[in-house]
Structure formats: C-alpha cells, structure tokens
C-alpha cells in the first residue's frame, strides 16, 4: 500500500514539474521585442505578434519621458512599429514596453 502511495506521489510531482517547465518555456510576445535604428529611422520589432494593448515609453538617461505611444490593436496583432526619430537628439535612451498583462521589456536605443 505504501509503495503505491509513493509511486502516485512521485508521478504527480513529475507531472507538476513538467507542467511548470512548459509554462516557463512559453515566451510572451513582448519579451521578443528588439529595436533597430537605420538611416534615421527607428523600428521596434516583435518576433511574435502582440495581441494585447501595450505602451511604448522612451526615456532619456535622466529618466525623463521624452515620448509615449499607446498601441492600437490590428487584426492579427502588432509585429512592428515605427518610432519618430526626429524628436530624439543624439544620445542613449531606454525604451520601455509594457503590456496590459503587466509584462514589460526594456531596450537600449542609441541615437547617432
């Protein structure tokens, strides 16, 4: 009887651990964000379409917010976004992406 209990307990532990690992392997679309700056154009890319509302906030190194964009959802989600480069002086900026689910990602942007 005790052996059966131990086997059932170990099996349930195994399945719980496997389920938790599967959840942790799932990537949130916001965590796939990357940024590219070419020819005075700044683009924000997502490897997977973001299907929730999110906010993009650009801050200078002092922490002052210099630009905010609230996303609008499109059919199929958002996979790339242009940021206005003309409003940014040369320097280093932090780009914060925050989804309504609470998921956040911070990227560094260097404007030359």
Topology:
Elements: H1 2-25, E1 33-38, E2 41-50, E3 54-60, E4 65-70, E5 78-83, E6 91-99, E7 104-111
Antiparallel strand pairs: 1-2, 2-5, 3-4, 3-6, 6-7
Question: What does this molecule look like?
Answer:
The structure is a single chain. By secondary structure, the protein is an alpha+beta fold. 21% of the residues lie in helices and 46% in strands. Strands 4-3-6-7 form a 4-stranded antiparallel sheet, with no helix packed on it. A hairpin with a 4-residue loop joins strand 3 (54-60) and strand 4.
| CATH level-1 class | Mainly Beta
The CA-CA distance between the termini, in Å, is 72 Å
Largest sheet, described in full? 4 strands, antiparallel
Shape: elongated
Q: Classify the secondary structure makeup into a structural class.
A: alpha+beta
What descriptors fit this protein?
alpha+beta, elongated, 21% helix, Immunoglobulin-like, 1 helix, 112 residues, four-stranded antiparallel sheet
Give a short summary of the structure:
The protein has one helix at residues 2-25; strands at residues 33-38, 41-50, 54-60, 65-70, 78-83, 91-99, 104-111. The termini are far apart.
């Amino acid at each position: 009887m005790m052996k059966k209990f131990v086997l059932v307990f170990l099996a349930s532990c195994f399945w719980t651990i496997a389920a938790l690992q599967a959840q942790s392997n799932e990537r949130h679309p916001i965590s796939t964000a990357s940024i590219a700056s070419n020819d005075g154009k700044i683009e924000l890319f997502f490897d997977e379409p973001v299907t929730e509302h999110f906010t993009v906030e650009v801050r200078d190194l002092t922490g002052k917010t210099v630009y905010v964009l609230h996303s609008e959802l499109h059919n199929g989600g958002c996979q790339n976004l242009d940021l206005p480069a003309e409003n940014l002086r040369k320097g280093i900026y932090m780009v914060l992406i925050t989804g309504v689910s609470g998921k956040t990602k911070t990227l560094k942007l260097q404007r030359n």
